[in-house]
Amino acid sequence: MKDNGYIYAELLAALLVLCFIISSCIPLYVQIKTDRKNAYLYMTARHVLDEQLLSVKSRGTVKEGAIVKDDVGFFISWKENPDFPLYYMGCIQYTNLKQKRVELCDLAKK
Question: Taxonomically, which superkingdom (predicted)?
């Protein structure tokens, strides 16, 4: 008895299951890739802010403005901190890949 027809049907079913598994993994892969890039942006923003805080400590002068690093724009702003009058509050702002505005702040001694 020959059942050649069943082999093709089983192959088609296995291919269909494989395509379903792959198509369900693609959005997860895209999400992981976006989260990794956002983490890299956060790390870069933190490094830029730390560099600016160290320059304030060493020179004692503050300057506001935009900084471009790795084709991403960061904006640095300085505020007087009412809770700690001996410190400047430095904040850096950027837009992540989800188009969300992120702000990181830290203190630097005057």
Answer: Bacteria
Residues 102/42, Cβ–Cβ less than 8 Å:
yes
Percentage of the chain exceeding pLDDT 70: 95
CA 68 to CA 39: how far, in whole Å?
17
Sorted by sequence, the CB contacts under 8 Å of residue 99 that are 6+ apart come out as: none
- C-alpha span between 53 and 55 (Å, rounded): 5
- pLDDT tens for each residue of 31-47: 999 999 999 999 999 99
Residues of the domain holding 104: 4-109
Mean pLDDT, residues 44-70: 86
Count of other CB atoms within 10 angstroms of residue 62: 17
Over range 47-76, report the average pLDDT.
86
Q: Total domain count for the chain?
A: 1
Contact 81, 89 (CB under 8 A): yes
Answer with the residue of higher pLDDT: 7 or 90: 90
